[in-house]
């Protein structure tokens, strides 16, 4: 009611109280964040997301939203080079055309930047289209060679335009294991992550 009457500050206070009473309620958090952003309280919205992610580090949708807020005034260094899957025509990759294939590679992309100390940071982007049930079985469990903090995103893109985040992401040694869902023939499974290489690991013969 307060929101309908334009009392955004009052509505924010009410939703903060609700979230304090239910600190694990993701929807309550999102309502606080959305209202804070509408009131141009971006720093406060960021802090709520950071605090929540400390307790729930596996929530990659909220991690993505925090990253977007942190980068709203400056694009990530890899964005000018990256490929956007929705802009790629994937209709030609289908079971009729490739009857012996279970899935198709849509994107297999990596770009690397070299820092002044000769350490390297690489952005890796993978997208694969499922063609049949066997493809679902092969791809719906993903093992990513990345630490949790280096995972940019992982998601399922469906032909109807819907997108889903993984239900379970688990630590597995130095990697992450993710269980994707809502996967069907025609779905595209997409993930991206960052790789780091210290200067000491770089070939000494390399020169800037």
Characterise the protein shown here.
The chain is of the alpha+beta class. Helix content is 28%, strand content 27%. The protein contains five helices and eight strands, in the order H-H-H-H-E-E-H-E-E-E-E-E-E. The strands form two sheets. It has a five-stranded antiparallel sheet. Strands 3-7-6 form a three-stranded antiparallel sheet. A hairpin with a 2-residue loop joins strand 6 (168-172) and strand 7 (175-179).
The stretches of 5 or more residues where confidence is low (pLDDT under 50) are 1-5
Number of discrete helical segments: 5
Structural class: alpha+beta
Shape: globular
Number of strands: 8
The sequence of SSEs as H and E is HHHHEEHEEEEEE
Q: From the alpha carbons, calculate the radius of gyration and give it in angstroms.
A: 20 Å
What is the distance, rounded to the nearest whole angstrom, between the alpha carbons of the first and last residues?
Answer: 61 Å
Largest sheet composition: 5 strands, antiparallel
**DSSP strand content:** 25-35%
Main sheet strand line-up: 1-2-8-4-5
Helical percent range?
25-40%
Provide a compact summary of the structure:
It contains 5 helices and 8 strands; from the N terminus they run H-H-H-H-E-E-H-E-E-E-E-E-E.
Write the layout of secondary structure elements.
Elements: H1 8-21, H2 26-38, H3 42-55, H4 60-70, E1 103-114, E2 120-130, H5 133-139, E3 141-144, E4 151-157, E5 163-164, E6 168-172, E7 175-179, E8 188-197
Antiparallel strand pairs: 1-2, 2-8, 3-7, 4-5, 4-8, 6-7
Helix pairs in contact: 1-2, 2-3, 3-4
């Amino acid at each position: 009611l307060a929101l309908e009457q334009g009392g955004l500050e009052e509505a924010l206070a009410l939703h903060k109280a609700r979230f304090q009473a239910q600190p694990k309620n993701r929807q309550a958090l999102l309502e606080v964040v959305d209202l804070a952003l509408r009131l141009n309280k971006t720093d406060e919205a960021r802090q709520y997301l950071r605090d929540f992610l400390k307790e729930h580090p596996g929530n990659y949708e909220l991690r993505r939203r925090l990253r977007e807020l942190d980068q709203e005034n400056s694009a990530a260094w890899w964005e000018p080079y990256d490929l956007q899957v929705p802009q790629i025509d994937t209709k030609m990759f289908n079971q009729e055309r490739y009857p012996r294939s279970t899935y198709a590679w849509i994107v297999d992309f990596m770009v690397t930047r070299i820092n002044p100390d000769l350490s390297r940071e690489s952005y890796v982007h993978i997208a694969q289209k499922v063609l049949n049930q066997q493809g679902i079985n092969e791809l719906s469990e993903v093992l990513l060679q990345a630490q949790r903090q280096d995972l940019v995103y992982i998601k399922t893109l469906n032909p109807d335009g819907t997108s889903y985040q993984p239900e379970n992401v688990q630590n597995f040694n130095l990697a992450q294991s993710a269980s994707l869902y809502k996967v069907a023939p025609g779905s595209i499974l997409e993930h991206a992550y960052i790789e780091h290489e210290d200067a000491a690991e770089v070939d000494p013969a390399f020169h800037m």
